[in-house]
Each structure stands twice: as C-alpha cells, then as structure tokens.
Amino acid sequence: MSLQDDLLTNSEQRLWDLIAQRTRTGADTRAIDDRIWKLFGERWAVAFTDLSGFSRATERFGIIHFLQVIYEMRRLLYPVIADHGGILVKPEADSLLLLFRDAASALRCSIAMQRACQAESERLVDEEKILLCIGIGFGDILRVGQHEAWGSEVNAASKLGEDTARTDEILVTGAARDAIGDAIAGATYTAIDDAIPGSKRNFRVAY
Fold first, then answer.
1. Most Cβ neighbours (<10 Å): which of 6, 61, 88, 104?
2. Share in percent of the chain as helix, strand, coil (round to 5)
3. How far apart are CA 166 and CA 153, in angstroms?
4. pLDDT 10s digit of each residue in the chain, 207 long?
5. How far apart are CA 50 and CA 135, in angstroms?
6. 131, 127, 90: which is closest to 113 by C-alpha?
7. Residue 175 falls within a domain, yes or no?
8. 167: phi > 0 → left, psi -120 to 50 → alpha, else beta; which?
9. Segments forming the whole domain that contains residue 193
10. For residue 143, is it within any domain?
11. Integer distance in angstroms from the first to the last C-alpha of the chain?
C-alpha cells in the first residue's frame, strides 16, 4: 500500500471511529459533529449525471449494450470534465458523481457535457444514443478520501440528476442557483415545482 493509500484509509477510519464514539451512551454528539466537520467539511459544487431510460434499454438490448453505452459515455465525458476542472469522485454504473470548486464551473461543465452527448448522439442509432440528465448542488459536504462525499447537496444533486431531470436537462438546487448568479452568459433559470429532500427550491436551466 502506498503512503497516499494509507492516508486515505486512515482518513476513512478516523471518520468511522468518530461515528462509533457518537453511538456511545452519553456521548457529546455536538462536539463530535463539530470535530467531524472540522476534519472533513469542505464547500464544493456537486454534479450528478445519469442516463435517461437506461434501465429500459438494458432490459431490451442486454448487458453488453449496457456496458458499451457506459464505455462511450465515459470516453466522451472524462476529457470534458478534466477540461473544466472537475473531480470524478466515483462512477456508479451509468452515473457519475463529480465535484467542482465553484457552482459556475459545474454548470459550464454540465452544459459542455450535454452538448458533447447531443453532438455524438446525432451519428448514433436510437438505442446507442447518450441521453444525459444532470443535477447540480452547492454547499458544505463531508469529503472523505478520494471516493466518498456526503451531504444534503450531494443527495439533492443525485435526486435531481437521477430521478427528476429528463433527457438533455440540467437541474440545479436553489443553493447552486444562488451561487452561480449571472456568471453564465445566456443561461436562464426556471423554477420547477419539485421540492426534494435537501432542497426546497430547484430550477431548470435553459442553455
């Protein structure tokens, strides 16, 4: 195990040790929570991507089709993410969890990802099209090691990207919308009716 791997493992172990302390009778949970946030709390923009209709397409066309579309999606989007300063926390099947230092960068990258998928899909048959949905949140999260991120804005971005957004859509939480402000020329925002856990105000982005 490398020194970096050892440090990452130790950071995860430290978190779970603190969680274990929190479960003990008479534990000062407020003090423990403060310590956890001081150790692991960071402010990030979170983007969660998902592919529209993926489960239905997989059922119809099979697991090899499933793997091919995932491969094509990652091949197409990873360079876009890198170009916009994004950090891939982890891929999960047809989804990606990404972090950005500011909400405007998250939105710029999301617009670039959508346009890349739309351009690529023009040359593909229907069952191979990369139909992207994206949710964006912004706020304080717990970031532990390289592959874990937790927080209400993480949950909200996931809910918007995976369950609420439709093909080609980008949805943002109220916190992300406030943080973006007028930084993205040409982008407009329309409030949506969906209130989700972690975010009562949410917006659809026209780009």
1. 104
2. 50, 25, 25
3. 19
4. 454 555 456 888 899 999 999 999 999 999 999 999 999 999 999 999 999 876 666 677 777 888 888 999 999 999 999 999 999 999 998 999 999 999 999 999 999 999 999 999 999 888 889 999 999 999 999 999 888 999 999 999 999 999 999 999 999 999 999 999 999 999 999 999 989 999 999 999 999
5. 9
6. 131
7. yes
8. beta
9. 41-206
10. yes
11. 45
* SS3 sequence of 25-38: CCCCHHHHHHHHHH
d(Cα 135, Cα 204) in Å, to the nearest integer? Answer: 9
Q: Does an H or E element contain 129, and which?
A: none
Domain with residue 177: its CATH number is: 3.30.70.1230
Q: Are 207 and 186 in contact (CB under 8 A)?
A: yes
Number of structural domains, the chain?
Answer: 1
